[in-house]
């Protein structure tokens, strides 16, 4: 099965996630945090460096628990920038014949 390429937005979101996790890890070793989350240190390294920009939900949830982050914090830090809403379209004026 061929995996579809990631969009630039997905890559950016993955970079944000990696930076957030790395900052939250602080001085703790990658191996210790990974073990606490039940994942391999290699998986954590790939997520932190953006090489795995779309990790599974339960992986993110386990890392959040190990690092003391809420899923709301992660979502707020990693979500795409809000798009500018388009201007409302004025209602059509009926033509009187």
Written description of the protein model:
The chain is mainly α and about 100 residues long. It has one domain: 434 Repressor (Amino-terminal Domain) (Orthogonal Bundle), CATH 1.10.260.40. It is built from five helices and no strands. The model has no long low-confidence stretch (mean pLDDT about 90). This is Transcriptional regulator. InterPro entries: Cro/C1-type_HTH (IPR001387), Lambda_DNA-bd_dom_sf (IPR010982). Pfam families: HTH_31 (PF13560).
List the main descriptive attributes of the protein structure presented here:
0% strand, 434 Repressor (Amino-terminal Domain), mainly alpha, single chain, 5 helices
The oligomeric status of these chains comes to single chain
Number of helices: 5
What is the element string, with H for helices and E for strands? HHHHH
Distance between the termini: 60 Å
* Broad shape: elongated
CATH class: Mainly Alpha
Radius of gyration: 20 Å
CATH architecture: Orthogonal Bundle
Short description:
The chain is mostly helical. It is 56% helix and 0% strand.
Sequence-ordered SSE layout with sheet pairings:
Blueprint: H1 8-25, H2 30-37, H3 41-49, H4 57-67, H5 71-78
Helix pairs in contact: 1-3, 2-3, 2-4
